[in-house]
Design brief:
With 485 residues, the protein is mainly β. The chain has a single domain, classed as Methylamine Dehydrogenase, Chain H, CATH 2.130.10. The chain has no helices and 30 strands. It has strands spanning 2-4, 9-11, 56-60, 68-74, 80-87, 93-100, 115-119, 124-132, 138-146, 149-157, 173-176, 185-193, 199-207, 210-218, 240-243, 250-258, 264-271, 278-283, 303-306, 312-321, 327-337, 340-350, 373-378, 380-386, 392-397, 407-412, 436-439, 449-456, 462-472, 474-484. It is globular. The two termini are 41 Å apart.
């Protein structure tokens, strides 16, 4: 393994300026009133030209292949971290980390000129989720792919972008497959760090074409936590929990969060017969399914599901726990009606016990009670955050086709109603906004622009990481970070 940087191009230009003035007068003996500085302007969803070039930072790797940002967060100093992948000179993908200063300039103190990558010969490695531990070390999860075999991967980097040689016997990374005797295809999608720096990962394992949701927990040194998960060789456990009831033909964890009691909530998707609902699980801190959670008519079962019939396909892509302990899930619903396919942004809120929140959502029963969800404009949501006022911001894209579509960012009031003070101007009602914005970079006509993850900075501005078709040697994807104000 080698750690390497790159001389790739990162587009950055600071354009923003500000000014203003004022004055006043009065009688000589009048009392002067101290003027308090104005707060930051409201966030309405326009590109922030003080960031990067016109509100965008773009990364085009040296091989002009696909580069993607899949996760974004801010560290304790307010710097912007992005995890994803970059195309290498050996026709494979390397895990990539980028760090930017507040104005979008690459941080020269991180990695090599603001970029850190890892490379293993004849392997492709993709970073999908990221978290910071209590020492500000960067934990990335995803998968490694080689010769028809796929393993869940964890990498840990020091705050300066170099691989952490104290992790897992000094190598700084580890892989895992839950099936030792048969070649399973495993992947980690989301990661969280608990109070003792243990690493909790949600994802899936595929064996014989069947997807199974998996939860892993690792100690801070990278070893499996044998106090967690399914029963192993007594008295130890396996260090992971696999969800595989007989009536589920598929299940997959897409996003996880830890609640105040150390329980693990996971959002994702599943298949039950002909139905493909969104699913929300809760596990106890020892990795056992929490049977006090979820269910409706038949009582709690450890999970809750949602769909609108056999012709709908729902996915929960992101989950957050609000200050009241309620569970917010963002995702999508794909529906076929009379031969026509539609895609909708979906937003759900559940009570802490896993029951739909009847105070949330634009969908109503006849008596005016909310159904616990909002079905919004065409597109899909990949991520969500709560802003400084408790509003819900989601990011994704406008199309289900991975080769097309524009970036989509939408905002909702705390009760789930669309926020008409945000986004693109509504041409039919010019005094209002649509509640969402779309953005097309425009380097390739009809190309792809997608938001994979988002975060907020200290002023509430919206940072989105993703990818967009670039203009270079052939058609490829550039890693992009947008900032909206």
């Amino acid at each position: 393994m080698r750690i390497r940087g790159t001389g790739a191009a990162i587009s950055v230009l600071v354009l923003w300026g500000c000014g203003g003035g004022g004055g006043g007068g009065g009688e000589p003996e009048a009392t002067q009133v101290e003027q308090k500085p104005a707060g930051p302007p409201p966030i309405v969803g326009v590109l922030d030209e003080s960031f990067g070039v016109g509100g965008i930072v773009a990364y085009d790797g040296p091989e002009h292949g696909d580069d993607r940002g899949n996760a974004i967060l801010r560290d304790a100093q307010g710097r912007i971290l992005v995890a994803g992948s970059t195309w290498s000179m050996l026709d494979s993908y390397d895990v990539a980390l980028w760090r930017f200063n507040d104005n979008g300039a690459p941080d020269p103190d991180f990695g090599d000129g603001g970029v850190a990558t890892t490379h293993h010969e004849e392997l492709s490695e993709i970073g999908l989720g990221m978290a910071l531990d209590h020492q500000e070390r960067i934990v990335v999860v995803g998968y490694q792919w080689s010769k028809g075999h796929k393993s869940m991967m964890i990498w840990r980097f020091n705050p300066d972008g170099h691989i952490d040689t104290t992790f897992y016997g000094g190598v700084g990374y580890r892989f895992h497959n839950i099936d030792k005797n048969e070649p399973s295809f495993d992947s980690g999608a989301s990661v969280a760090i608990d109070d003792t720096d243990r690493i909790v990962v949600a994802g899936r394992s595929t064996l014989n074409g069947i997807h199974r949701m998996v939860l892993w927990r690792f100690n801070s040194d990278g070893s499996l936590d044998t106090s967690f998960g399914d029963e192993g060789e007594a008295p130890e456990k396996k260090g992971f929990a696999v969800f595989q009831p007989l009536d589920f033909s598929h299940s997959e964890g897409k996003s996880l969060a830890l609640d105040s009691g150390g329980r693990i909530v996971v959002a994702g998707r599943c298949r039950i017969g002909e139905s493909e609902p969104m699913i929300l699980w809760r596990y106890l801190s020892d990795g056992i399914l929490d049977l006090s959670f979820g269910g409706i008519a038949g009582g709690p079962v450890g999970y809750a599901t949602f769909d609108l019939g056999p012709d709908t396909h729902c996915v929960g892509s992101a989950i957050k726990i609000d200050p009241q302990g309620k569970l917010l899930v963002a995702g999508r619903m794909f529906e076929t009606v009379d031969g026509q396919d539609t895609l909708s942004v979906m937003l759900w809120r559940y009570q802490p016990n896993g029951r739909p929140d009847s105070t949330f959502g634009a969908a109503k029963y006849d008596d005016g009670t909310s159904k616990g969800y909002t079905r919004a404009n065409t597109g899909n949501a990949n991520s969500l955050v709560l802003d400084l006022e408790g509003r819900i911001v989601v990011a994704g894209r406008t199309s289900p086709d991975e080769a097309s579509g524009d970036l989509l960012v939408a905002r909702f009031h705390p009760d789930g109603e669309v926020d008409r003070g945000f986004g693109d101007i509504d041409p039919e009602v010019p005094t209002e906004r649509k509640g969402y914005l779309t953005h097309e970079r425009g380097l390739v006509e009809g190309g792809e622009d997608q938001g994979a993850d988002l975060a907020l900075d200290g002023e509430g501005r919206i940072l989105v990481a993703g990818a967009s078709d670039g203009a270079g040697t052939g058609i490829h994807l550039d890693m992009l970070v947008w900032r909206f104000r």
